[in-house]
Amino acid sequence: MKRPAVEPRILPGFGPALGFTLLWLSVVVLAPLAALVLSALRMPPAEIARIVAAPRVAASIRLTFGLALASAAVAALLGLLLAWVLVRHRLPGRRLLDALIDLPFALPTAVAGIALTTLYAPNGWLGRPLAALGVPVAFTPLGIGVALVFLGIPFAVRTLEPVLESLDPEVEDAATSLGATAGQTFRRVLFPELLPALATGFSLAFARGLGEYGSVVFISGNMPMRTEVAPLLIMTRLEQYDYAGATALAAVLLVASFLLLLAVNRLQAWGVGPAARG
Fold this sequence. Notes:
The protein has 13 helices and no strands. The protein has one domain (about 55-270): MetI-like (MetI-like fold), CATH 1.10.3720. The chain is globular. It is mainly α. Helix 1 packs across helix 13 (about 245-275).
């Protein structure tokens, strides 16, 4: 009797490797999240609602979500422009510019916060002329937005670059030869292909902005009801031994981040689906 052929595995020991990976994922990622959820579930829902509805907490949540949303939109737009320049134009110093895009990833957030605060402070290089024009940046919500845009741009650029590189310029030439203007070519030919990657970069920048602490704590000024973000308020509650308040606020941010992760996965599936069918 002829034995059936066995396909060689690319990675030998797949079972143990998968088990080790799942164990590591459970211990490092899932266990802390589960502990936070269980701690929040021990609290009555009315208590969580009371904590979250407090004026100072509600103001910090509104500020955090609003600035994260606005800065992610700005980062997505600037990331699209930067990715377009890096992919479609061979500029002098292009490699250096491409390397600088990743600087917010490698730079410690505290260093980024100090650098931005020094630059945009009332006596800083950019802060002084902006303050003279009546546009203060440091220690205002605008300064928080600047820090979040600085951290969010790399997400947009790195998600858009592979898509732009895969687009054939001849498609744009064909649209132009058929009488389409530059705006029509971008709107009807390029933008549908870029939209899934653009939405993913926006979601990642929004998620980063939602939980950012290190770079924001310096440039915000940390003024309650004005420039106090939710991650900073969590740290403040912990320093005050208000574990219930910190847990409730952290649970709200966790749920928002989880929903955002689901949205990112849906966007990725949406982007892959048409390509697979085509």
